[in-house]
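Q: Protein A?
A:
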Amino acid sequence: MYKEKKIFLDFDGVILDSEQRIVDLKDKNPTLDWEEFFANIDWKCLYETSSEINESLKVIKELQRQKTQLYILSKVHTLLEGQTKIDFLRKHGIEIPILLTPPHIKKSMVYLPNDGSILVDDSYKNIVDWNQNGGHGILFLNDDILEDEEMELMKITKVKSLKFLLK
């Protein structure tokens, strides 16, 4: 079912555990606003020291080998962050297209999912927006689900690994 559709994967929080690491680093730098913080992160160090989530790179390589219509669709706050993500993925043998989304731009504006395309993302808001625009959003679960969203989550497909895409 999934292999017949275009599949878009988020990077931070789906491929690497970098999402939580960014939040932890920001907590250690409370005097910096987010813009200053993003401008001062050592992105290369962040991604090199982040952990892969549930063999996601292995799954992506297999899907790539199977000629699946697969893309990375990731928010970036700086050009350096975007370049570092691209370098990281290429270094690990990931050759699929990478679409970068600037802050405050919805992913559904970068790619209009009205063709039923799939988005796997750890952001509930991104999944809701994707679904509202004709796509099929799949929530990549982590431990940070807000309690007031839990009832709505019952209506959304949820996964903890990208391995479901191999079936």
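Q: Protein B?
A:
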Amino acid sequence: MKNIFRSALLLLFPTIAITACDSDDPIPAVKHTPRTVLLYMVAQNNLSSNASRDLQEIKTAVLNGDLGDSRLIIYHDSYNASPALKEFDSDGNLISIINYDDKTLSVSSERMLQVIADVKAKAPADRYGLILWGHGTGYVQDGIEKKAVPTNYSEISPLSFGGETQPDNKSYWMNTTTMASVLDGKEFDWIYFDCCFMAGVEVAYELRNVTDYIVASATEIPAEGMPYDKTLKYLMPANSDLIAAANETFRHYDSMSGMLRTCTISVIRTAAMDELARSMRALYTDSKGLPDDYEPQAFQTPGDHRQYNWSYYDLQHYATALAGKSTLYTKVVPTAIGQTVIAAYATPMLWSAIPLSNHCGLSTLIIKNDDDPQIDKFGYRELQWWTDVVEPSFNNP
């Protein structure tokens, strides 16, 4: 999730209000623009004020001409307002295109499917990109189930993407498995996760068939998130420069000092995920286990681990320890991982608390055996990474 607490200093800066014009005349659809990007903002939570800041950054990019001939359509769900599909006009006014009821969860497949359909109807393009904005918890699988979308809020438990707070004071999320089902066939050639912990090998493998590239962070990110005024010029062209956009985000935080100098971000090529999965499965099966003194590269602080009870570790560091002297090491590291992660950036420290000495651009959960309580606690068995990669190694000692 975006860290709202550690980034409290950021909230001391004044936020410039962005208001949507109440216009009955929607912005005319432009046929076949080079690219349409959908920014899906789940901001009905403690990140709501940060959404206002990001909208101001987007306005700056619009006025600078950074969108070119492409269109950025924003689904904005925030406190004290019904969700709406919006777009900045050329003068920097935020116009409402479609208003939605607030009875349907933004993290439900029903709402996301409707929004995607509306965006394609209102802003058809040659290519599409998707920015998912909100909280994130990666592989954790106990949010809305893939099989059905409950209509009663009380039937839904946390987590994976979203963090949508409702009047019952509960927080609702969309599972990665649900997300994969929703986005299948929707033609997003890249997904940028402007949220925490989504650069997991489990997430990338789940989404490998629904998008070509993923930009995400293996760790928490500050509540400020992506600096849109610096990155949109790279994301909006038909041939988006994802590496440049990721690098701009990294440089934004790497230029800071103290605990605010914290960022990991990577660009993942999903076409290489199947080969990575085969290589990791072979490594898991061949490995004699981890050394007794192995200390994994953690991607969350001890306080986070105690509070949330989930864990993220560097995949390459883990694979190296598993490989030992095995010749499979040269196949998995750096070849398979290197072909998957085409760019990876990390500041020296995470929140001034943990050295980021190892960062390959993908995280993973470390499973010790098939009785590991984390498997069921986090719904790990529902993930394709478990089914295709981890579980078979336990059945082939």
